Amino acid sequence: MALAAVVARTSQNGMEYLVRETGRAEWALSAQAAARFQTFRDATRAAMRLPSAMKAYALPAES
C-alpha cells in the first residue's frame, strides 16, 4: 500500500517542507504547500539527493 509522504527538515524557524527540488530546493513553513510524493521511498530518495547542508528526511503526509 502506497502512502503519501513529504520531505521535511528542521531550521531556526521550525519545520520546513520541500516545495520543489528541481534546480534549487525551495522550502515552505506550511505542510500544505509541500510537494507530495507517492511513496516513502520516493520521498526518501528526494531527501538523500539534497546537499548534506540541507539534511532532510521523509515524513508521512497529513491528509
Keywords, separated by commas or semicolons:
single chain, 63 residues, alpha+beta, four-stranded antiparallel beta sheet
In short, what is this structure?
With 63 residues, this protein is of the alpha+beta class.
Oligomer status: single chain
SSE series: EEEHE
User: What overall geometry do the principal axes of the alpha carbons give?
Assistant: globular
The total beta strand count reads: 4
Question: Helix coverage percent of residues?
Answer: 10-25%
Poorly predicted spans: none
Percent in strands: 25-35%
Radius of gyration equals 11 Å
Reported for the largest beta sheet, the result is: 4 strands, antiparallel
Commentary on this structure:
With 63 residues, this protein is of the alpha+beta class. It is 14% helix and 33% strand. The chain has one helix and four strands. The protein has a four-stranded antiparallel β-sheet with strand order 3-2-1-4, covered by helices on one side. The radius of gyration is 11 Å and the shape is globular.
